Amino acid sequence: MRLYNIVLLLIGLALLGGIIAYSNPALLAAELAKSDMRFILAALTVSTIGAFTRVLKWSVLVGVGPRALFPVQVLGITISNFTPGKLAEPAKAVLLKMRHGVDVSRSLPSIIWERINDLFVLVLLAVLAIQSMTLESNFLYIGFLSIGVFSAMILLFLGVLKNEGFGRRLFQLARKFPLLNKISENFIETFYNNKIKKRTILVCFVITVMAWILEGYIFYFSLLAVGVEANPITLAGIIALAALIGVLSSLPGGLGSFEAVVILMLGITGITGPKAVAGLILFRFVSFWYFGFLGVLSFLYLSRRLDVKSAFK
Using CA atoms, how far apart are residues 72 and 92, in angstroms rounded to an integer? Predict the structure, then answer.
């Protein structure tokens, strides 16, 4: 598995290197060197607000205060971002148990609802992006494939949450895999007894929309830093489609695949060349990598505050 992850990382780096090489590295470096620091700081400010927004949307669902939840959510998302297909998302349920004693069976439904809201908003924004642009047929198929896959995933998650019989069959299937074979009947009972109110889910949905729109504004300021102006909502749609395709590619953090999709779609809007790549690099720095930095700080903060033994109870 470790070799598989390394291979995926190398593929992502190769794709990213190809994009940089194609954009003319010398001109790209010049664009980055003369970028406007005021707009970079504005992007960082919005990115920080976005980080708190992502904490708030889980806080609403799981019932733990944002201040206490912040390092757990940030570290959990960071771990998830660097795993293929973001498969490690449930890891934050374990972190929450080790930090605040909340049973995984109680927090897991909130994570599933959080993921449903994220995917639903991403699919909506991606559809808007596709409808507003003239895409080549091959890329259009990839876009609709990613939307179809994640729409099916939303239905699967809803099936697990809303249909207990269906969910129990999936839990029984999961028991056949390593690490998941310790799922107990008590875990399943607690999972289905922990109901989340519709109003709470709706509030989480509104916050989720805000979080992804903020991503569009982070990109907006990143492009302004290199002298390019674009519609923040259009940029949010581009990010959404690129995020879906990036997760579907299984490359860690969508590295390479995310950038390729964004550059292609920026080109359709008329933003091309070194300026487009420079704006994208700044965006990834103040969004993805900045969040990863917060994740490292969260790890250092939590490393002496986690009750590791509780994870096995």
Answer: 6
| Residue carrying structure tokens 């029984």 | 172
Amino acid at 210: M
Whole-number Å distance between alpha carbons of 73 and 111: 10
Q: Which residue has the tokens 């090489």?
A: 21
| Rounded-to-10 torsion of CA 232, 234, 236, 241 | -160
3-class DSSP assignment, residue 225? coil
Cα separation of 21 and 28, whole Å? 9
Per residue of the chain (313 residues), give pLDDT as tens: 566 667 777 787 788 788 888 888 888 899 999 999 999 999 999 999 999 999 999 999 999 999 999 999 999 999 888 877 677 788 898 899 888 888 888 888 899 999 999 999 999 999 888 887 766 666 778 788 888 988 999 999 999 888 888 888 888 887 777 666 667 778 888 888 888 899 999 999 999 999 999 999 999 999 999 999 999 999 999 999 999 988 887 777 778 888 888 998 898 888 888 999 999 999 999 999 999 999 999 999 998 877 666 655 5
Whole-angstrom distance, CA of residue 53 vs CA of residue 59:
10
Using CA of residue 251, residue 240, residue 74, residue 195, what is the dihedral sign? negative
Which residues, at least 6 apart from 168, have a Cβ–Cβ distance to it below 8 Å? 188
Cβ-defined contacts of 228-231 (< 8 Å, 24+): 228/271, 228/275, 228/276, 228/279, 230/266, 230/269, 230/271
